[in-house]
Amino acid sequence: MVDEHQIRKYVVDWLAGRISLAQFEDWFVPATWNIAGSDNLVNLVDEIELNLSEYSGGYLSKEQIREVMQSILREFAPVQTVILEFSPRPIPARSSSAISLEWMHPHLAAV
Fold first, then answer.
1. Fewer CB within 10 Å: N-end or C-end of the chain?
2. Mean pLDDT in the chain?
3. Which tens digits make up the pLDDT trace of 45-74?
4. In this structure, are residues 44 and 72 in contact, taking their beta carbons and an 8 Å threshold?
5. Residues contacting residue 27 through CB under 8 Å, at least 6 positions apart
6. Which pTM does this prediction carry?
7. Span 100-108, mean pLDDT?
8. Left (φ > 0), alpha (ψ -120 to 50) or beta: where does 91 sit?
9. Residue 62: how many CB atoms within 10 A of its CB?
10. What's the Rg (C-alpha) of the chain?
């Protein structure tokens, strides 16, 4: 099953001139047929399909489809989730002038 990363890679390949728009469409259409997945993935596919259709119908120029695809890449930028490990425990003050923060993550403690 295709994912957002693969779709974005193919769009970038087309925008960079490594593949033609016809090659992109030849890959994209069967790869995303009846796509299911996250809302972001489905919305990304829908936006690309809509704009390819508008281009094929003559409603967008080659320059406009390039601009739209660049915009889609920005709009559907991947979201990165960062999970921080937190284990509250007392941290002793390092000197008499240090502020004692009792429940601070060790990596954030003042030196």
1. C
2. 82
3. 999 999 999 999 999 999 999 999 999 998
4. yes
5. 10
6. 0.67
7. 47
8. beta
9. 9
10. 24
- For residue 52, report the phi and psi dihedrals to the nearest 5 degrees: -65, -40
Give CA–CA dist 98/96, Å, rounded: 6
Residue 111 has pLDDT above 80, yes or no: no
Residues belonging to the chain:
111
Q: How far apart are CA 101 and CA 111, in angstroms?
A: 12
Total Cβ atoms within 10 A of residue 48: 22
The two structure tokens encoding residue 97: 């002038």
Q: Residue 85 CA to chain centroid, in angstroms?
A: 24
79's tokens: 């979201």
Token pair of 37 as six digits: 């997945």
Give residue 75's pLDDT.
87
Q: What is the pLDDT of residues 38-53, one digit of tens each?
A: 898 999 999 999 999 9
Q: Which two tokens stand for residue 109?
A: 């403690």
